[in-house]
């Protein structure tokens, strides 16, 4: 019913446009004003009806296509506007208004120099060009002038700064450290959890393997806490991302989604980190963050170490710092289960993390 009403409305709009076009042509051919336009003969009436019917049918025939295009455009606009701040929209609108004002001033200067038809054509083109240029210039400058309205903000009003969106993968949710990092305020911007990540997490939680099942359920608990404490968007495979359903690999889906949304990717997966970096996607690896914030240990530093087991080489003992960093203690094999004073001799950084070598004090 709604589609039929929409089609009738389009037919009426097309007929009105056809009638207006007939009036414009009569004005130009007979050099008269709009108030002097009249249908004085059967020929004029026939041409008017022909214009109305033809344009009405054109609009009516293309109604289904226009409806589909309108729905698709509306969904795209709705999705894109989610990531655009109010100040950006205002600056873009201001740019368009300035462009149209300039076009109005220019059009007034040559109004008496051109015939009416040429004046109308040139003016339409001028308005379109200057309006577009105003929008383009404002859009190009809006990032650097994002705080242009901050001076007009109400004092004491909370300001929300839009950061780069972050896409989270399954490994981060299961790992769980992301919750504490978010609570500490080290992650800004919108947090996006794809629907296919939720599906993968649900499959892990339903696994027949006991270890996987425990990890999956822990990940679901972490996810519920994140959603209850922070603004998290669940990205479903809408029309724009429907093609992701045809991709079997979750990692490939994550990379394509992050590129589509201009988002960063948060992960603990070493291989996904490398592949995403190759695809020019910024990756925030929680393992790298954990290594970066470990305490700095330098050779010659004194420390107390609990030796817990024997090392690989002869007479070596193994201990650990509170953050899990392994310490290899020379001549520590005879001091297992003891707390000894030792001096750091060297520190080695490996792909797996940091390794410290120490010697027991005499």
Automatic annotation (TrEMBL):
Pfam families: PIN. Its cofactor is Mg(2+). The chain crosses the membrane at residues 7-27, 47-67, 88-110, 116-138. Residues 296-362 form the TRAM domain. The keyword Amino-acid biosynthesis does not apply. InterPro entries: Nucleic_acid_metab_PIN/TRAM, PIN-like_dom_sf, PIN_dom, TRAM_dom. It comes from the Bacteria. SUPFAM superfamilies: PIN domain-like. SMART domains: PINc. It comes from Mogibacterium pumilum. One of its GO terms (molecular function) is hydrolase activity. Keywords: Hydrolase, Magnesium, Membrane, Nuclease, Transmembrane, Transmembrane helix. This is TRAM domain-containing protein.
